[in-house]
């Protein structure tokens, strides 16, 4: 009889503990909600720039919990990439794990960004769909086309790329290296970390008048990307490539030239 009573008492204590834990958790979450809902959005702008110094949010409105930046940009070396207006929502549960996560959406992009107390940041399911002109300052010459970027996941620490899994494509690509526009069709790339805090990407043609098999590489501190690989002439290749490739690269096979830049 007494053993049974002890068992029942233990069960009651266990259930009582669960109720208290759930109640305390609810109070903590509610307290965080009250704080976050009242905290100004400028705190979010400061926190984002502190976590990722290359990202700037300006003309912010709303709250830390749910806000809008009328202007946003990313600095890449000495160049900038404008993002337009950005809105965000903070996940309160992520704060309990000391890794605040924000889902964001802009005119051209969307995704999820998290930052941990150790100073690292991560990105998941980032999508960017914009005219190639948004990165014109990163290109060596004038170009046009529709850029699509998908960052499946990535992690950063102190502005260094630790991990990256991303895909990129440019549809209807046109370039203007010498004053005349040249059609390049559709080109794609697969990017990952280069192991030195930067990015490397394999670039290839999807539907283009030239065959492309190039490798691009960029490391923090470098002014420009490095490019190396081969370009193959096709029957429909523009005349500018037929005239220019022999002077820019070494012919390693019939109509195939090895290039390196810079």
Question: What secondary-structure arrangement, pairings included, does this model have?
Answer:
Blueprint: H1 2-38, H2 41-51, E1 55-62, E2 66-76, E3 79-82, E4 86-91, H3 92-96, E5 101-106, E6 109-115, E7 120-131, E8 142-157, E9 160-176, E10 182-193, E11 199-207, E12 210-218, E13 226-233, H4 239-248, E14 250-253, E15 256-261
Antiparallel strand pairs: 1-2, 2-3, 2-4, 4-5, 5-6, 6-7, 7-8, 8-9, 9-10, 10-11, 11-12, 12-13, 13-15, 14-15
Q: Strand fraction band?
A: over 45%
Question: Tell me about the biggest sheet?
Answer: 15 strands, antiparallel
Query: What structural class should be given to the helix and strand makeup?
Result: alpha+beta
Q: Characterize the overall form.
A: elongated
Mean pLDDT: 82
Total DSSP E strands: 15
Order of helices and strands: HHEEEEHEEEEEEEEEHEE
Termini, distance in Å? 87 Å
Instruction: List the total number of helices.
Output: 4
Give the proportion of residues in helices.
Answer: 10-25%
Low-confidence stretches: none
Tell me the Rg in angstroms. 26 Å
Describe what you observe in this structure.
The protein is of the alpha+beta class and 262 residues long. Helix content is 24%, strand content 52%. The protein is built from 4 helices and 15 strands. The protein has helices at 2-38, 41-51, 92-96, 239-248, and strands spanning 55-62, 66-76, 79-82, 86-91, 101-106, 109-115, 120-131, 142-157, 160-176, 182-193, 199-207, 210-218, 226-233, 250-253, 256-261. It has a 15-stranded antiparallel β-sheet that branches. Strand 2 (66-76) and strand 3 form a beta hairpin. The longest helix is centred in the first third of the chain and has 37 residues, at 2-38. It is elongated and about 80 Å long. The model has no long low-confidence stretch (mean pLDDT 82).
